[in-house]
Design brief:
The structure holds two protein chains of two kinds.
Chain A lengths: L22 H13 L5 E4 L17 E6 L5 E11 L3 E6 L8 E2 L9 E3 L6 E4 L4 E5 L1 E4 L10 E5 L10 E5 L1 E3 L2 H4 L8 E9 L3 E9 L7 E5 L4 E3 L9
Parallel strand pairs in A: 1-2
Antiparallel strand pairs in A: 2-3, 3-4, 5-7, 6-9, 7-8, 8-16, 9-15, 10-14, 11-13, 12-15, 13-14
Chain B lengths: L19 H16 L18 E5 L3 E6 L4 E2 L12 E2 L6 E3 L7 E5 L4 E5 L1 E4 L12 E4 L16 E5 L1 E3 L12 E8 L4 E8 L8 E4 L4 E3 L1
Antiparallel strand pairs in B: 1-2, 2-3, 4-6, 5-8, 6-7, 7-15, 8-14, 9-13, 10-12, 11-14, 12-13
Classes of the chains: A mainly beta, B mainly beta.
């Protein structure tokens, strides 16, 4: 019995009008696809000061920031929020922390705002911890005593994962001048109410003596929380 | 487990129904899909890597690094940045409330942060804390250097204070203290303001634990 040996297949470049394929284009398309991969977005310091973008990015976007100045920044930052009021806030990857940034004035309720010289600022470190410093104030009059005041909702991405409270120091306007009388403990409770899959909402309430000197502002140095969306499901 | 599941072209006898072109393309797809996260590592010359490129690198552990133009930058740790705890120079009559609670401070150059710990009391037990104004308990030439002044000039907290003995102060008063840090002529200035009734006859302390700021 005679077997017929078939030859090895080999690739032959198709010759027009062979429409089977066009290997040249196919291979070039592959290279073009690789070439089309976008380079990283680079944010460079301007006049020695670098600022992370505040708008224009979506959650999860990554930028590379470099600043050869005093901060020696060179790190990837991941976008945490693209909130219409708060804009973009960022999580550092290689650097230890973001620069301090004022919270948006528009976030405050009517009648409240930053204290000039000591604005309420936030910073996020590369372990996902958010820190606060500075203070906020009532724009006229004295902070209401023993009254709950809603401040604002945090943008998703900066949420506090669980509800909780901190002590905020209050600051009478004329305490140093007059000596005042502080016969009772007085401070502000700052409360965060985290609702599952909804968000975190901050409020405060001044506690203590009602006869104390006029009190204008609350310090937030003690506020800090691990950021998270607060989204979770059971089971 | 192999990284890829490539199709291999085999010698004859060949099956005419096998489409080698599709097999090769499938192989290329695998390469494309699986090497995305490694781009820049392999044989790329340094000059070819775009600044800002991120990749997993192996420096003993797999870590996310970013190419800064000349080197791979890995996440900065903070553990090495802390100084040793140093005593806070107290202004008389303020002293440590008890052995083991010496007021101390330390700083971290990586995160530019200062921390305090310890407890202060008003000299010998039985002396009330100053109540009605800010009271300076640390400043002067031997204080915390001005380099460590808070970046926003002043920081203020409310901290806990407790009776050294459980019975003092008696009653329903709530006591507490505010702590303030800012700059003095030669050093960082630390003040407190006691709130509540007099601190009682057996002495109270103010805790510095957990007080921190960024310089």
């Amino acid at each position: 019995m005679v077997y017929i040996q078939t030859p090895n297949y080999k690739f032959n470049e198709p010759i027009p009008p062979d429409t089977m394929a066009d290997p040249v284009n196919q291979i070039n398309n592959t290279w073009q696809k690789i070439d089309a991969a976008a380079n990283p977005t680079i944010i460079t310091a301007v006049a020695g000061v670098f600022a992370l973008p505040t708008t224009g990015y979506k959650v999860g976007d990554r930028v590379y920031v470099e600043d050869p100045g005093i901060n020696s920044v060179n790190s990837t930052f991941v976008c945490l929020t693209d909130d219409p009021i708060w804009g973009n806030w960022w999580l550092p990857v290689q650097d230890q922390s973001t620069p301090w940034r004022d919270i948006p004035a528009a976030a405050f309720p009517a009648g409240y705002g930053h204290m000039a010289g000591d604005p309420w600022q936030m910073m996020i470190n590369n372990r996902g911890q958010l820190y606060c410093r500075g203070s906020f104030r009532i724009n006229s009059g004295s902070l209401p005593n023993d009254t709950n005041v809603s401040l604002f909702g945090l943008p998703r991405g900066l949420d506090c994962p669980t509800s909780g409270s901190w002590i905020g120091s209050i600051d009478p306007t004329n305490f140093n001048a007059s000596g005042g009388t502080y016969d009772q403990f007085r401070a502000a409770r700052i409360y965060v109410n985290t609702l599952q899959n909804v968000g975190s909402f901050l409020s405060f309430r001044v506690h203590g003596a009602t006869a104390s000197p006029a009190t204008v502002r609350v310090w937030v140095n003690q506020l800090r929380w691990p950021i998270g969306t607060g989204d979770f499901t059971t089971g | 487990m192999p990284a890829f599941t490539f199709n291999y072209i085999t010698p004859p006898p060949n099956d005419e129904l096998v489409d080698e072109q599709s097999q090769i393309n499938a192989n290329l797809d695998q390469i494309e899909n699986r090497l995305n996260f490694l781009q820049g590592i392999g044989t790329w010359a340094n000059v070819d890597r775009p600044k800002g490129l991120e990749a997993l690198i192996n420096d003993g552990n797999q870590r996310t690094a970013v190419w800064n133009g000349t080197a791979w930058r890995t996440p900065t740790g903070i553990a090495g940045g802390w100084t040793a705890w140093q005593n806070i120079t107290l202004i008389a009559p303020y002293v440590a409330s008890a052995a083991g609670f010496t007021p101390m401070w330390r700083s971290n150059s990586v995160i530019r942060r200062v921390q305090l710990k310890g407890r202060i009391a008003n000299g010998a037990t039985g002396v009330s804390m100053a109540k009605n104004n800010w009271t300076n308990f640390s400043s002067g030439a031997s204080g915390i250097p001005l380099t460590f002044t808070p970046a926003n000039t002043v920081a203020l907290w409310t901290t806990s204070c407790s009776p050294i003995t459980a019975s003092s102060p008696a009653g329903s008063e709530i006591n507490g203290a505010r702590l303030r840090v800012n700059a003095d002529a030669t050093s960082v200035r630390l003040d407190f303001n006691w709130m509540g009734q007099d601190s009682g006859t057996t002495g109270n302390y103010i805790s510095l634990d957990g007080m921190d700021w960024w310089y």
